[in-house]
Amino acid sequence: MWRLKLVPANTNIPxxxxxxxxxxxxxxxIVAATVLMFVRGxxxxxxxxxxxxxxxxxxxxxxxxxxxxxxxxxxxGEVQLQRFGDDTNVLIRVGVQSDQTEERGGQYVVDTxxxxxxxxxxxxxxxxVGPQVSGELIGSATLAVIIAVGAMFxxxxxxxxxxxxxxxxxxxxxxxxxxxLLFSLFQLEFNLATIAxxxxxxxxxxxxxxxxxxxxxxxxxKYKKMDLAELIDLSINETLARTIMTSxxxxxxxVALFIFGGEALSVFTxxxxxxxxxxxxxxxxxxxxxxxxxxxxxxxWGGAPVAKEKAEGKA
Length: 315
Prior knowledge:
By secondary structure, the chain is α+β, with helices and mostly antiparallel strands. It has 10 helices and 6 strands, in the order αβαβαββαβααβαααα.
């Protein structure tokens, strides 16, 4: 019976051999993301900046220049317009009013725009977020990511050992920072959907890393005198087919969602696609080099400490 194989059986790829190159690349990613966060910042959506978002549809191709000129004369500050999907869909963004009061809040902005455009357009979506709510959302979103990473650290510590937990957490931080770099570099809209994507990437990354760690633990018990580098390579190669198959099947669903899901889901699915790729990479080239650097106390798994062993092959 014919079976699809994305990875040949019994692969013997020397992953550990190239760990220094991979670590250098990961350091560049993290440093670049940190610098860009402070220098370029993010293109925050109204979830985090506050303001009003309206999606309208015109009968024919929208004349953005005319609409922008009319709306900018309403005294609402800068009004941003962009096409959303086809030529008839337009997104209208209005920031929080500098002199905003209860009378000049989000509903005032909506009513003013509707009075100007009238029945020329169909109003398909209206979202309003106040400045106080947007500030609370930033804090809650940041806290959610920190709690998720902290919970993963505790989970891996109890299930394995602190060395594994450190490798897993650094792998997660790498994936989050790589995604942050993507959003800051290309100024993609950063909103609550992005936070949902980050949390999903964290869960996917840790799942992939745990699979590799489980095989390492099994091999630590099975090959009590095998050199650590050889054992890590063996464990990664033994789980490579499962890792690649899981990533590919997940990517197939995400790519279909990215193509056919429309503009509303495009940024979210793009972040997820990127996260799946870097998550697969980090489970091999971030978590494993950490274990190589700090070592593993093999006596925990029924052998002598790795630091005291020499490469003696399989037991």
